[in-house]
């Protein structure tokens, strides 16, 4: 009896916690993040409803069994019921998986019209590279990497196309435009994580991993590394700064003028 009542109270407390959560996700800033939120809510409601039904059934079984102490006939199962709930559960989870895969299945739309930015993750910082006024990303090589010398991306000083590239410690992107991030790692596996994008993308050494973004609203958000990458992992943070388009272009112009040329 007491066990049944405690279970009932715990189920009610669980429902209240989900109905009035003390903390929740920060606002999402892309269409994909909104779709992610929708999928999360659908999954939560379906699993929550199943959880509540299961708990209530257990409460009912406990309370009923206790009230007929000694007279329980026991149960030897019911093939039809078992086959029914296994099929319904499988169908539910498959439907959720198919609905959730739509966001991931969105194919790349190519480079046309996109603001391309190279991202370099390294122990324990981020470097972002933009093409210069020529619109060409210059040659880079590991041998030219020099963090203390201001060349964290390894720009080739002999390549004229690399001389006008700009590098920055924070990621600035234009609001309302398609952006393509090309993720690179200089050493170990890192992970590009922005809560408001609902995106965690691993960055694997030796691979160039594309990540497309389209953020309409200007704002500043934290970029964190979400893959334990060494002793300084917790300090591997940066900022995603979404600027109005004109302000973004002005910032690039200013940086081109300031950038030291080898
Ligand atoms: Cu890292």
Provide a short characterization of the protein structure.
This protein has helices at 2-19, 31-67, 79-104, 160-163, 245-258; strands spanning 115-122, 125-130, 166-168, 171-174, 178-185, 190-194, 199-203, 209-214, 219-225, 237-243. By secondary structure, it is of the alpha+beta class.
Report on the architecture of this protein.
This protein folds into two domains: 1-63; 115-258, Cupredoxins -  blue copper proteins (Immunoglobulin-like, Sandwich), CATH 2.60.40. It has helices spanning 2-19, 31-67, 79-104, 160-163, 245-258, and strands at residues 115-122, 125-130, 166-168, 171-174, 178-185, 190-194, 199-203, 209-214, 219-225, 237-243. Helix 1 packs antiparallel against helix 2 and helix 2 (31-67) runs antiparallel to helix 3 (79-104). It is α+β, with helices and mostly antiparallel strands. The longest helix has 37 residues, at 31-67. Helix content is 38%, strand content 23%. It is built from five helices and ten strands; from the N terminus they run H-H-H-E-E-H-E-E-E-E-E-E-E-E-H. The strands form two sheets. Strands 3-2-1-5-8 form a five-stranded mixed β-sheet. The mean pLDDT is 88. The protein binds copper (II) ion (CU). Residues 121, 190, 225, 227, 229, 233, 236 line the site of copper (II) ion.
């Amino acid at each position: 009896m007491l066990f049944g009542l405690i279970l009932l109270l715990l189920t009610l407390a669980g429902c209240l916690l989900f109905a009035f959560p003390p903390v929740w996700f920060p606002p999402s800033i892309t269409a994909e993040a909104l779709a992610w939120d929708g999928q999360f809510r659908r999954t939560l409601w379906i699993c929550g409803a199943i959880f509540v039904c299961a708990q209530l059934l257990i409460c009912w079984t406990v309370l009923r069994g206790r009230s007929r102490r000694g007279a329980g006939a026991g149960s030897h199962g019911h093939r039809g019921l078992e086959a029914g709930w296994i099929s319904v559960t499988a169908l539910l989870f498959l439907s959720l998986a198919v609905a959730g895969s739509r966001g991931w299945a969105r194919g790349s739309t190519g480079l046309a019209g996109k603001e391309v930015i190279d991202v370099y993750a390294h122990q324990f910082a981020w470097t972002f590279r933009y093409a210069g006024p020529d619109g060409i990303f210059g040659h880079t090589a590991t041998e030219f990497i020099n963090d203390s010398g201001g060349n964290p991306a390894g720009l080739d000083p002999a390549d004229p196309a690399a001389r006008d590239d700009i590098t920055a410690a924070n990621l600035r992107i234009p609001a309302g435009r398609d952006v393509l991030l090309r993720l690179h790692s200089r050493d170990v596996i890192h992970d590009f994580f922005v809560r408001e994008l609902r995106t965690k993308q691993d960055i694997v050494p030796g691979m160039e991993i594309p990540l497309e973004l389209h953020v309409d609203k200007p704002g500043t958000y934290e970029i964190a590394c979400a893959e334990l990458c060494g002793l300084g992992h917790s300090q591997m943070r940066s900022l995603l700064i979404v600027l109005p388009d004109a302000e973004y272009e002005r910032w690039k112009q200013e940086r081109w003028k300031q950038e030291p040329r080898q």
